[in-house]
Amino acid sequence: MDVGFIGLGSQGGPMAGRIIEAGFPTTLWARRLASLDPFAGTAATVAGSPAQLAAASDLVCLCVVGDTDVEEVVTGEHGILAGLKPGGVIAIHSTVHPKTCHRVAEKAARQGVSVIDAPVSGGAPAVAEGRLLVMVGGDDDDVERCRPVFASYADPIVHLGALGSGQTTKLLNNLLFTANLGTAATTLALGEALGVLPDRLTEVISRGSGNSFALNVLGGDTGGLARLAEMAGTLLQKDVRLVADVAESATVTGVAVLDAADATLSLMEHPR
To answer: What pLDDT sits at residue 224?
Structure first.
């Protein structure tokens, strides 16, 4: 399978590198030429536009930032659909609204092109170890065609159902993580106020029933939310807004996790 990859940032760059190392013929495109520097001397080919990249590809992987970026790169004048042949597949690794995937898929279907959503979790370290988590939504046959490429950097690869189910799952994961961050931070602050050192409290809880990934991210730092706000606050805000919009179509009422996530975002903006 010939692979095209767009979105060579801190997440996508290592993913593209693993695809190249696995021996798949790979074409790259980037808005910023500097993003291509790490691939100098590799077997990858550089395209002059998304359309040119798509013309050389059976599968195009997208790891751009948001919904607008996905739609622009796919449907723009010189976008992927201007070059991808019928039978091609677009894999959206970006975390976006499920509706975005459906809009793109509707346009792609007119040209005989398939779309799957495949958001990821784990970051560059997980990519390097080949254990990135990929959450996939889409047609069974399309997913299986792409699985060997995803396996170059991912384990597990979980097929969740129809198009959009991967995005929904990723948003729910990020929602719970955001809520847990606030719970962990306020627990550490309460412990400190009661005379328990935050790092010692973290050591105990991390080995007990109250452990969570969020607690370990904070690592006993009661000011950790402010640090995370600088690193990932914008992305967490985006994802919570998206999942809140998705949740409006659900029949579940009184979803406390949404309130908890909003409280965490408020703490990030106005740390105590």
So the answer is: 84
Q: What is the pLDDT of residues 75-121, one digit of tens each?
A: 999 999 999 999 999 999 999 999 999 999 999 999 999 999 999 99
CA separation for the pair 116, 163 (Å, rounded):
6
CA distance 102 to 108: 10
Q: What sign does the dihedral 111-16-76-242 (CA atoms) show?
A: positive
Nearest to 188 by CA among 178, 147, 180, 150: 180
Q: How far apart are CA 140 and CA 51, in angstroms?
A: 26
- Using CA atoms, how far residue 213 sits from 3, 174, 219, in Å, is 33, 12, 10
Q: How far apart are CA 140 and CA 124, in angstroms?
A: 27
Cβ proximity of 108 and 74 under 8 Å: yes
Closest to 167 (Cα-Cα) out of 92, 113, 236, 248: 92
Question: What residue has token string 């550089």?
Answer: 46
**Listed residue (260, 268, 246) closest to 96, CA to CA:** 246
Q: Token pair of 252, please?
A: 């579940």
Tell me the catalytic residues. Answer: 170
Maximum Cα interatomic distance, the chain, rounded to a whole number of Å: 65
**pTM summary value:** 0.92
User: Residue 14 has what pLDDT?
Assistant: 97
User: Measured between alpha carbons, how far is 120 from 237 in angstroms, rounded to an integer?
Assistant: 18
User: What residue ranges of the chain have pLDDT lower than 70?
Assistant: 252-254, 271-272
